[in-house]
């Protein structure tokens, strides 16, 4: 077995591989004729962030079975090219959770006690004790946005300071929040009640710009904000303005939308603490990341165990060809239902029917969950089931030999929460076209591609025409218009209808304006925009 370490790793990481007899380990200083030449007979490639494992490089690695990324981000790895070649791509999410959580707590203390100013004034020869009277964390309300591994670690530590914890994460079961002493609440309520607010979510279209002029206006005067997640979660201009006005008491930022940080509205603001993305930069975290990755790679090469993969699990070419369209369909159906379930998700029921039920369904299952949890952090088609379990979400699967309605294979997803149930079914037509078959018990056939506007309305005359008129007034073209009405569903009130409209969007502003206009129509109950992308 040949392992190529393209970038420097810790001695402990190297030792994991060296313990294996007859394994050839190539370190960076031993690569003499270029990485491509070294990969000609390699089984595994270990990288950090500098090496670009692109399609061209992978062409020179015919025996390569796995690429290990020491860290979370895999932007430097062409996962699609790796999947096509049957190469598993693994990363190491969560290994730096404690490091980031400790920095978060440290930044909160730093803001509460004005430590940077105290240090600066002392070095300047001043004894400015009166102006440095701070606050205790005890008794303050900490709002945690995102209760994944890092958010949970922050909660555990904040409890020891006697803080009141309130959190928002629609992808965590209430039992997990309770175990960590966090009271779940709607996002707006977290914004309103928090004395300190910390962000621990991934970057998605829904979370980008989460902290903006509107959300800042709802917050307490003097709230302090910590961001050790992603810089793009914050509208920098809006936050800087709110700090200057005194609305926001301070901020501690470790991540930025453009790194390294050069020009910034935060420069010169005394009550803003800036650090150069050091959340995971501890000796222990880097050691843990390297050791975890080495163990994952070793276990895959020796035992075939796949952990923290970011692409598909191992399938034969024939098996993959058969299941791939349903994998894509399953993820799209999950994403379609993702924001339709009221309350925090507690249970996912997956029903397979027809030919789909007769084959390997693990990948279809994980793709479904991945779609449902797409706005959560570090979820992919390999680790989705494990993430769901970690978050206290129960999974149920059922298989039926025959599919109803004439389709060869049908997948149905049912999402349960304490507040209600939402369900949808779908199939694949013509070998590659994912189609919605029903939503909350209403039969409807619509494409699961592109930009969809999902509209619930009272089943009265004139609504369809009004929808078309409003979209036309905003210069939005209708690509497909699917209709359904409630004749038997218990999930939808009698006399309610459903429209799924596929549209061509000229701009985000036009779409937002059109949705706002649709919501003003008296007969329309709800409007939801779903972005599923193209096939």
Automatic annotation (TrEMBL):
<dbReference type="InterPro" id="IPR029752">
    <property type="entry name" value="D-isomer_DH_CS1"/>
</dbReference>
<dbReference type="Pfam" id="PF02826">
    <property type="entry name" value="2-Hacid_dh_C"/>
</dbReference>
<dbReference type="InterPro" id="IPR045626">
    <property type="entry name" value="PGDH_ASB_dom"/>
</dbReference>
<keyword id="KW-0520">NAD</keyword>
<dbReference type="GO" id="GO:0006564">
    <property type="term" value="P:L-serine biosynthetic process"/>
</dbReference>
<comment type="function">
    <text>Catalyzes the reversible oxidation of 3-phospho-D-glycerate to 3-phosphonooxypyruvate, the first step of the phosphorylated L-serine biosynthesis pathway. Also catalyzes the reversible oxidation of 2-hydroxyglutarate to 2-oxoglutarate.</text>
</comment>
<keyword id="KW-0028">Amino-acid biosynthesis</keyword>
<dbReference type="InterPro" id="IPR002912">
    <property type="entry name" value="ACT_dom"/>
</dbReference>
<keyword id="KW-0560">Oxidoreductase</keyword>
<dbReference type="InterPro" id="IPR006140">
    <property type="entry name" value="D-isomer_DH_NAD-bd"/>
</dbReference>
<dbReference type="Pfam" id="PF00389">
    <property type="entry name" value="2-Hacid_dh"/>
</dbReference>
<dbReference type="InterPro" id="IPR006236">
    <property type="entry name" value="PGDH"/>
</dbReference>
<dbReference type="InterPro" id="IPR045865">
    <property type="entry name" value="ACT-like_dom_sf"/>
</dbReference>
<dbReference type="GO" id="GO:0004617">
    <property type="term" value="F:phosphoglycerate dehydrogenase activity"/>
</dbReference>
<dbReference type="InterPro" id="IPR006139">
    <property type="entry name" value="D-isomer_2_OHA_DH_cat_dom"/>
</dbReference>
<dbReference type="InterPro" id="IPR050857">
    <property type="entry name" value="D-2-hydroxyacid_DH"/>
</dbReference>
<keyword id="KW-0718">Serine biosynthesis</keyword>
<dbReference type="Pfam" id="PF01842">
    <property type="entry name" value="ACT"/>
</dbReference>
<comment type="similarity">
    <text>Belongs to the D-isomer specific 2-hydroxyacid dehydrogenase family.</text>
</comment>
<protein>
    <recommendedName>
        <fullName>D-3-phosphoglycerate dehydrogenase</fullName>
        <ecNumber>1.1.1.95</ecNumber>
    </recommendedName>
</protein>
<feature type="domain" description="ACT">
    <location>
        <begin position="452"/>
        <end position="532"/>
    </location>
</feature>
<comment type="pathway">
    <text>Amino-acid biosynthesis; L-serine biosynthesis; L-serine from 3-phospho-D-glycerate: step 1/3.</text>
</comment>
<dbReference type="GO" id="GO:0051287">
    <property type="term" value="F:NAD binding"/>
</dbReference>
<dbReference type="InterPro" id="IPR029753">
    <property type="entry name" value="D-isomer_DH_CS"/>
</dbReference>
<dbReference type="Pfam" id="PF19304">
    <property type="entry name" value="PGDH_inter"/>
</dbReference>
<dbReference type="InterPro" id="IPR036291">
    <property type="entry name" value="NAD(P)-bd_dom_sf"/>
</dbReference>
<dbReference type="InterPro" id="IPR029009">
    <property type="entry name" value="ASB_dom_sf"/>
</dbReference>
């Amino acid at each position: 077995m040949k392992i190529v370490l393209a970038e420097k790793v810790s001695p402990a990481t190297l030792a994991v591989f060296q313990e294996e007899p007859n394994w050839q380990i190539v370190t960076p200083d031993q690569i003499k004729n270029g990485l491509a030449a070294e990969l000609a007979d390699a089984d595994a490639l270990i990288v950090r962030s500098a090496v670009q494992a692109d399609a061209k490089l992978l062409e020179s690695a015919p025996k390569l079975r796995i690429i290990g990324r020491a860290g979370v981000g895999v932007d430097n790895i062409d996962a699609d090219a790796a999947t096509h070649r049957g190469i598993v791509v693994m990363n190491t999410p969560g290994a730096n959770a404690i490091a980031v959580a400790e920095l978060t707590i440290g930044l909160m203390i730093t803001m509460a006690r004005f430590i940077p100013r105290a240090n600066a004034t002392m070095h300047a020869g001043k004894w400015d004790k009166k102006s440095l009277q701070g606050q205790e964390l005890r008794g303050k309300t900490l709002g945690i946005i995102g209760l994944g591994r890092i958010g949970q670690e922050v909660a555990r530590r904040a409890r020891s300071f006697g803080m009141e914890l309130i959190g928002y994460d629609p992808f965590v079961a209430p039992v997990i929040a309770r175990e960590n002493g966090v009271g779940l609440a709607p996002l707006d309520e977290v914004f309103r009640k928090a004395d300190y607010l910390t962000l621990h979510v991934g970057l998605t279209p829904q979370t980008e710009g989460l902290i903006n002029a509107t959300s800042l206006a709802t917050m307490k005067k003097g709230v302090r904000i910590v961001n050790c997640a992603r810089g793009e979660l914050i509208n920098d201009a809006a936050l800087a303005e709110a700090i200057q006005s005194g609305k926001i008491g301070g901020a501690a930022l470790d991540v930025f939308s453009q790194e390294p940080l050069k020009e910034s509205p935060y420069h010169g603001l005394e009550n803003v603490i800036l650090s150069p993305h050091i959340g995971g930069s501890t000796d222990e975290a880097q050691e843990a990341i390297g050791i975890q990755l080495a163990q994952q790679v070793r276990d895959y090469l020796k035992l075939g165990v796949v952990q923290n993969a970011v692409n598909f699990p191992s399938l034969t070419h024939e098996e993959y060809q058969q299941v791939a369209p349903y994998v894509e369909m399953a993820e799209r159906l999950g994403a379609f239902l993702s924001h339709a379930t009221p309350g925090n998700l507690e249970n996912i029921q997956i029903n397979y029917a027809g030919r789909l039920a007769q084959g390997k369904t693990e990948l279809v299952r994980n793709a479904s969950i991945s779609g449902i949890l797409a706005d959560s952090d570090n979820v992919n088609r390999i680790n989705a089931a494990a993430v769901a379990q970690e978050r206290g979400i129960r999974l149920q699967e059922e298989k039926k030999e025959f599919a109803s309605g004439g389709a060869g294979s049908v997948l149905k997803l049912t999402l349960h929460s304490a507040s209600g149930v939402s369900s949808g079914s779908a199939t694949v037509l013509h070998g590659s076209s994912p189609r919605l078959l029903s939503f909350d018990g209403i039969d409807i056939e619509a494409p699961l591609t592109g930009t969809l506007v999902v509209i619930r309305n009272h089943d009265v005359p004139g609504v369809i025409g009004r929808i078309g008129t409003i979209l036309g007034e905003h210069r939005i073209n209708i690509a497909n218009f699917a209709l359904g009405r409630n004749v038997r569903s218990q999930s939808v009130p009698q006399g309610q209808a459903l429209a799924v409209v596929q549209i061509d969007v000229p701009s985000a502003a036009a779409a937002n304006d059109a949705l706002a206009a649709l919501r003003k129509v008296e007969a329309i109950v709800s409007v939801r925009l779903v972005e599923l992308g193209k096939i």
